[in-house]
Each structure stands twice: as C-alpha cells, then as structure tokens.
C-alpha cells in the first residue's frame, strides 16, 4: 500500500481536529434558551495544600513583580498564576507577604532616618569644631545633598524639539518615481 492510497492528509502542528457530528434529539423549548444565556464556565480547583512554590510565587507577587517575571522565577505558567490570584487561600498568603514587606520597609525607613539624624549631628559638630574643619568641597557636597532632599534640587532645563520631515509627500514622490520606471530598466 502506498502513501497516496492511505488517503492521509499531512498535518502541521497541534492536535488533529475532532470530528463534529450532530443529530436531532428534540425541539428547543424556551427553558433551553434560558440555559444558553447562563454561565457555563468551569470553576478552578482551590488549593488543597500550600506548597513552597506557592509561597515563592506569593513573595514574588507581593513585591510588585510582573506576572511574566514571577512566571520565569517560579516556573508557573502565566495563566496558572492568574487563576491562583483568584484563589482565597492564595490571596490570604499574598496579603501576608505584602504585610511582611511593608513592615520590613517601615523598619528600614526608621533605621535610615536614625542613621541620617546621627550623621547630620556628627557633621554639625565637625562644622562647629574649629580644630578639624571639613574641606570646602565636602561642605559643598553636603549642602547639595541636603538641599536636594529638602526639595530644593538644582533646576534642570530640557528643550523639546519637533522636527517635521513631511514623510507623506516624500512617500508620494517615491511612489510616483516607481510608476515612471519602465519594465526591465534595472535588469542587467
């Protein structure tokens, strides 16, 4: 038997199409039309047990990471991540990690403020002490940083330049030149 006798049609990628069949069972009733209008979607399964991957994903999403980045890190498909984000247990897990991230940020900010106040007090003492003055360049840098953080940053100016090359008329002229070319003009 040859290939042509088998009557096989070579397929590209993907699953073979299913054979559709239809048969008459009964006439449609008005109640059937109401059923057609109702949602027939499938409800995703809820998480049975939170695993390490769930925790890793929740930590990624709690930091504001995009779905694509979280997918690359945890190995979850983006569509699965979207489904998990709707799960009540996963939502609770994410809010837990968001709370931890916010607490960590607040702790960092408190420490940064304490360090900044201590450093400023030390600098103030050094400036008032005549025996070990700071170099003028260091004092200028301190002024710049302090002014910047206090809302008095140096003013930067930018200039926007709009250039109009009239691309439309250039394209029309090029099309006209192409219409004027005789066939075979550029053949060798």
Task: Break the fold down into its secondary structure elements and pairings.
Layout: H1 30-37, H2 52-62, H3 67-74, H4 78-85, H5 88-128, H6 136-149, H7 167-179
Descriptive overview:
By secondary structure, this protein is mainly α. It has a domain at 52-149. The chain contains 7 helices and no strands. It has helices at residues 30-37, 52-62, 67-74, 78-85, 88-128, 136-149, 167-179. Helix 2 (52-62) packs antiparallel against helix 3 and helix 2 (52-62) crosses helix 5 (88-128).
Rg: 35 Å
Average pLDDT for all residues: 81
The helicity comes to 40-55%
Low-confidence stretches: none
Coarse morphology = flat
Please give a handful of descriptors for the protein shown.
188 residues; mainly alpha; 7 helices; flat
Summary of the model, kept short:
The protein has 188 residues and is mostly helical.
